[in-house]
Amino acid sequence: MEAQKVDMFLMMNSKFFEGHQLGHVREKLSDLDDSKSTLVQSLQFKDPTTVLIISLLAGGLGIDRFYIGDTGLGIAKLLTCGGLGIWSIIDWFLIMGAAREKNFETFQQSIY
């Protein structure tokens, strides 16, 4: 992939990844051929800010975990009413990082 396209991708999508992951993303994008680059550019990532808002409003029901794809944790959170509220409060601080990790996993799966 051309350096200009890599820079554009990172500029548009850097909020979806952790800071320490951006170097790896840049490296993998630079090595991609054009057929894979089109696929990567069409990926839809979960916005960490949206996930945080969902967590604040309906985190006790596990909807935040269902949204990012953690179905098992979403069911557990739903059945325990957010761990009696404690798990919900903890997720307010952790859910944005979990969303970025899921985005990174989605990115890695798409390039292989």
UniProtKB/TrEMBL annotation:
The keyword Chaperone does not apply. Residues 45-93 form the TM2 domain. InterPro entries: TM2 (IPR007829), TM2D1-3-like (IPR050932). The chain crosses the membrane at residues 49-68, 74-95. Its main location: membrane. One of its GO terms (cellular component) is membrane. Coiled coil: none annotated. It is a multi-pass membrane protein. It is found in: Membrane. The keyword Transmembrane helix applies. Pfam families: TM2. Keywords: Glycoprotein, Membrane, Signal, Transmembrane, Transmembrane helix. This is TM2 domain-containing protein.
